Structure formats: structure tokens, C-alpha cells
Amino acid sequence: MPSKVRVYPEIRIPSPLIQTWQTFRKNSRAMTGLWIFSFFIVMAVLGPSLTSYDPFSQNADALLLPPSWETNGSLHYFLGTDDLGRDVLSRLLYGAQLTFGSALTACVLAMLVGSGIGMIAGMQHGLTSSILYHMLDVLLSIPSLLLAIVLVSVMGASLENALLAITLALLPQFIRASFNAVREVANKEYIIAVRLDGSTPWRILRLAILPNILDVLVTQTTRGLSTAILDISAVCFLGIGAQSPLPEWGTMLADSLDLAYISPWNVALPGFAIMLSVVATNLVGEGLRKALQQGQE
């Protein structure tokens, strides 16, 4: 019998997730940001177990040692020590959990709660939705850092209260972003057609609206994470967040200001860690936004 010959070869179309990843990995800046972002996640999860020294132990024989590449540096303290002889590298690794990990937790909580409220409100019409919209206008007129400072001042100075305050300060941003995105998509012709077909509001939201607002949610999440990193560092820098001797990056920066001319590495390294984590987050967010938008087109 003659063998069957396929005149029209089968074309396999990759899933939307695979298409998004293929587009994302072509962006060199986004991939660079992803590697740095992944490094900070590993630091936040495994930081305390990766430290070569106890970040809280003091060594009177190793005060203000410069980094190992300096003339008087030591390989035993790769990034040097502070004014109490504590290893800077160990404190930075441990501090990733307090700064980056706390910011990530606050951002995820704000995203889940805020986006949920915003999407539900965006599907509704009437007085309740209008009141919520105008309340958000008022809250968004207040900078998130100022709102977080006020909340921490009321609740008391601690890292836990700072985390809660920043989560609450980020909520209006997520509610507003998801609210506007749902309202914009809900007026599209295909959504009206699905609604006329008899689909329930939950089904419309889950299957028709949510896939089309993912780029908005991703963009807002990365903005929120960048804001959370800066806000937590700023609150702790002002002395109303994590307290010494906790090696939170903002607290380390505040404790080292008096040593800026004597040991500049104690100021530069925590500041560089804050800056690098924010830049990496923004690079990943921008790459994801472009990949998702290209997939929708």
C-alpha cells in the first residue's frame, strides 16, 4: 500500500505562555533584569543560610576593614566590616530578606487584595462604584511614602508595622489600575457580545476581561514592588521601621552616614543594593509588559 503523505503538514501553535516567554527572552535588557531579580529572590529566601559570619556578631579586632580589593582589605571579609566589626557581606545577604523580601510580600498582598477589589468594582455600576472612584482620587493624591510614614507613626515603629503600612499605602494604586483597566475592556465589542450571549459576570471577568488586562496588572505590580522597596528603605532610614541591629538596607544606610568619609563602602553598598533591586524590577516589568502586549496583538 502506498504510504500516506501529508500534503498539509501539521502546524503546532505554542501556548500564550510559551509565546510570551519567547518574546521576553529576546529582550536582552529584560533577561539581564530577570537574572538580577532572581539573584535577589535567592538572597531573600536563602540569605541567612548563605552568610559566612553571623550578621550580628561583633569583632573588636576587625573594625572598619575595607573591602578585599583595597590595600588593607582581607579576603576573610570580602566586602569589609562596619564600625562594630560586623561583616558587611553577611549583613547585606541577611538584609535582602528584610528589605526585598518584605517589599515583595507587601506588593503581592496589595496586588491580590487591591486588584480583586478593583476588578469587582469595575464590573459594577452605580453609586458604590462612583464613591469608590472618588475616594481613590483622594488617596492617590497623597504620596505612598507619606501615607506609610503616617500609618507607621500611628501604629508604632517596627518592621512589621512598616510592612503593614506600606501594604495599605499600595492598595489604592492597585484598586485604581485594575478598576480603570476593567472599565476600559468592559466597553469593548467582544465583551458586549459575550454578555449578550448570557455569560455570568464572573465568567466574563475570568475568561474575557482578565487575560486582556494582564499587562496592566504586571506593570502596576512591578511599579508597586519598586515603590515598596524604596518606601521600606526610606521608612527604616528614618528610624521608624526596622531598628538596629537588624541589617535592613535602609537601617544600614542610616547607621553608616557618620562613617561616609571614613568608610564609604558602608554607605555605598546598601545604597547600591537598593538601587540595583529597583532597576532589576523595572527591567523585568517593562519586558513582561512588552511581551504581553505583543501577544495580545
TrEMBL record:
Q: Tell me a GO cellular component.
A: plasma membrane
The segment(s) forming the ABC transmembrane type-1 domain are 96-285
Q: In terms of domain of life, where is this protein from?
A: Bacteria
Coiled-coil stretches: none
Which CDD domains is this protein grouped with?
A: TM_PBP2
Pfam families associated with the record? BPD_transp_1, OppC_N
Q: According to Swiss-Prot or TrEMBL, what is its membrane topology?
A: Multi-pass membrane protein
Q: Which UniProt keywords apply?
A: Cell inner membrane, Cell membrane, Membrane, Transmembrane, Transmembrane helix, Transport
Q: Where in the cell is it found?
A: Cell inner membrane; Cell membrane
SUPFAM superfamilies found in the cross-reference section: MetI-like
Give GO BP annotations, semicolon-separated: transmembrane transport
- For the keyword Transport, the answer is yes
- Mind telling me which InterPro entries this protein's record contains? BP-dependent_transpt_permease, MetI-like, MetI-like_sf, OppC_N
Which residue ranges run through the membrane? 34-53, 98-120, 132-156, 162-179, 224-242, 262-284
PROSITE patterns with a match to the protein in the record = ABC_TM1
Q: Note whether ATP-binding occurs among the keywords.
A: no
- Belongs to which family? Belongs to the binding-protein-dependent transport system permease family. OppBC subfamily.
Which protein, by its recorded name, is this? Cationic peptide transport system permease protein
Organism expressing this protein natively: Tolumonas osonensis
